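Ticket #4471: structure export looks truncated?
Reporter: QA, pipeline team
Priority: medium

Steps to reproduce: submit the single chain below to the structure queue and open the exported record.
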Amino acid sequence: MVTTTDATFPKLIARNAKLHPGKVAIRHKDLGIWQSWNWQEVEIEIRYLACGLARHGLKRDMNLAIVGNNRPRLYWSMAAAQSLGAIPVPIYQDAVADEIEYVLNNAEISHAIVEDQEQVDKLLEILPKTSALKHIYYDDTRGLKNYRESVLIEYNDLRAIGEDYDSKNKTFFDDEINKNKSSDNSIILYTSGTTGKPKGVCLSHSAWISAATADIKFDQLSDSDSILSYLPMAWVGDHLFSYAQAIVAGFTVNCPESSDTVMADLREIGPTYYFAPPRIFEDLLTQVMIRMEDASHLKKQLFEYSLKIGKNFGADIMDGKPVSISNRLLYGSCNLIFFRPLLNVLGLSRVRVAYTAGAAIGPDLFEFYRSIGINLKQLYGQTETVAHVCKQADGDIKNDSVGKPMKGVNIKVDGNGEILVKSPSMLAEYYKNPTATDEALTSDGFFKTGDAGFIDANGHLKIIDRSKDIGRLNDGTMFAPQFLENKLKFFPYIKEAVCFGDKKDTVCAFINIDLEAVGNWAEKKGLAYAGYIELTAKAEIYDLISECIMNVNSELEKEPELANSRISRFLVLHKELDADDEELTRSRKVRRAFVAKKYAPLIEALFSGAKECSITTEVKFEDGRSGTISANVLIKDSQ
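Actual output as written to the record:
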């Protein structure tokens, strides 16, 4: 029996295999067919993989890199490494070679398991620049038939080596698992690196298991629940939901066929448990609005009326608050005619609990999903706290908060307004970086989150913005860029926004349009365009975005402390902000300082009153080549 004092993930997997051997643990859609593995089969796969890695020299306290999309074999690789006392290090699958090189060298990686040819090519490219990498294992064999590098070996061959090793050393695997302690480091997750080089966050088994256990009790999760795992395996959110919670609760993880089939796979699986960052919910709303643009005038009017009813009563009904019978019937009609069909299209009709985190979500966006019947809640945390600090409880939802601290989590706000956190689910250290570890922790062991906020009279934590991003206009008005950006991104035509205003008289904004939504709008208006750059330069597009900004400015007038931070001027950026161009992190957060430096001429033009600005921008293409794009960017005053 596994106790809380000695629990590790390999021990919990063995427990699941004994208690629920035939229960489906994980699925993967391959070539259009869902394949399933039960807990007993999963344990066998992990056993053979661990033995194969051990035969190839992976030992306790060594690090194993994992690169690829959400795949059963890559999740098993994590458990296999942990079984040996080694430490998995997942890397973002869309990371470029230089980013991977940094992690491989920083973490002293000797063994790596990757998904396919794309990842193999990256590792082979940087192999001469790595100091320790000796073994690269690959899952998908397509395109790799003629590769002859000695460091390469197919996953199935590694598994066969492990099966043979296990047959000759029958107690080895179990002996290795029994050596592991709950306090052992279970994974290294690298931070997004918004302000510098990523740092490796070392987190123990006990940190994750403690958080997962509390989360499961909080939301009454069980082994009958099901989740779609489509977010990067290197991201703390995926590891908490699709690994830690899934193993502790024993529920089913579903891996989509590809990033292009996520929506279709979501509809087929119909998960009961769903997690997505705000950007995903923004994209889903954009798709809904595009569909409604194609609808008849009558259907649009009915949909808008239904949304109004949903906004007035939907969340109250969900939270068990008093709503009259007549209004319940009215909402029920809207639900039957519009909301349920819409949820079926989105694949969210069976979702019992949904969460968002990773960035602030606009209150309008949050309200929309709750009004149509999705029990969407917010949670708050960081990689260093295993995304486990605050959660919104059923029936205690506030649009402008992230909920109350979880049991066992201690929160305080320092004199500068920064949120400090202390709990059993915290980092042990930053890998090979004692200076950063010391800087991140207070003398009494609290983690400095870098977020500014406060706890309200009801005990809810409210996040204002990143501490380093909050500024002041010259008239003293608080400038909270994320607050403004989230309001802008509620509109389906705006994919990304970056606001500037600290130590300025006014606020100005960069806008990235959503090509699909704006392109659809342009086609209906009969506007011809050859591509993104040409579309961003059209006066009609500026008028469209201007209307969105006017709406945001009108809302700001209702916020006394922010009324003077209305957006006075804006431009539509000639290219999409991209992680490959270092403008976004791999978790899709804006690298604000980098963007400000890269586009300094545009910022200067915005605040100088100029009507346009010519700029040449360096970009990286999908094939790895570098180049430049030039454009004459128009600048417009907000009406």
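Status: closed, not a bug. The export was complete when the record was re-opened. Leaving a note from the reviewer for reference: The chain has a mean pLDDT of 92.
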